From TrEMBL:
MF GO annotations: uracil DNA N-glycosylase activity
Major localisation: cytoplasm
Residue span, Uracil-DNA glycosylase-like domain: 50-211
Alphabetical list of InterPro entries matching this protein: UDG_fam1, Ura-DNA_Glyclase_AS, Uracil-DNA_glycosylase-like, Uracil-DNA_glycosylase-like_sf
E.C. designation(s): 3.2.2.27
Catalytic activity: Hydrolyzes single-stranded DNA or mismatched double-stranded DNA and polynucleotides, releasing free uracil
Function: Excises uracil residues from the DNA which can arise as a result of misincorporation of dUMP residues by DNA polymerase or due to deamination of cytosine.
Annotated source species: Aquimarina gracilis
Protein name: Uracil-DNA glycosylase
Length: 221
């Protein structure tokens, strides 16, 4: 099956694209986009991979679903398009960066600038129906994104995986911790953050410290 995705990822995931589940997933997504309003727009479904090639991956952040509100989702987890009000989880991410690194709040929540530095912003499910969180779960996306995580874990070294919240921790259960750095904390959503499970995790400075210790360029958060 010909999937329009960055060439390095295409090579790593070529076996997935030939599996029956992926063919069924493609048919489901096509039907959903035909009949319903879905996010992100079709050309941005694989944006996380297009903005961060396989060769460039140094950090992986795992999200759950794309945002399901108008104009929000752009194919990168936690990220929103330019000019869109930042959702609460993203606000808390920037608050932690400010506390951790002293970097002031950005003017927008578009995280393409992270992706271009080697941060893979991976949602477990890459599409969603408008206003219906979780509507495209258990259709095959999770199998595909498990294969993505497995490819990074097996084929690369010294990658930092940031697992925020129970869902991401389960998703990252099979990462080879002997050759990668895995940092976990609560989710940045207000429910978790306000109970003390997010703020103060220091993940952004700890990520850069690990990258530097392994001779890699740190991330300009």
């Amino acid at each position: 099956m010909n999937v329009n995705i960055e060439q390095g990822w295409k090579e790593q995931l070529k076996d997935e694209f030939e599996k029956p589940y992926f063919s069924e997933l493609v048919n489901f997504v096509k039907e959903e986009y035909l009949k319903n309003r879905c996010y992100p727009k079709g050309s941005e479904i694989f944006a996380a991979f297009d903005h961060c090639s396989f060769d460039d991956v140094r950090v992986v952040i795992i999200g759950q679903d794309p945002y399901h509100g108008p104009g929000q989702a752009n194919g990168l987890c936690f990220s929103v398009n330019d000019g869109i009000v930042m959702p609460p989880s993203l606000v808390n991410i920037f608050k932690e960066i400010e506390n951790d690194l002293g970097i002031s709040f950005p003017s927008n929540g578009n995280l393409q600038r992270w992706a271009k530095q080697g941060v893979l912003l991976l949602n477990a499910t890459l599409t969603v129906r408008a206003t219906q969180a979780g509507s495209h779960q258990n259709k095959g996306w999770e199998l595909f994104t498990d294969a993505v995580i497995r490819a990074v874990s097996e084929k690369k070294e010294n990658v930092v995986f940031l697992l925020w919240g129970g869902f991401a921790k389960k998703k990252g259960a099979k990462i080879n911790r002997s050759k990668h750095c895995v940092l976990t904390s609560g989710h940045p959503s207000p429910l978790s953050a306000n109970r003390g499970y997010w703020f103060g995790n220091g993940h952004f400075s700890r990520t850069n410290k690990y990258l530097e210790e392994n001779g890699l360029i740190n991330i300009n958060w």
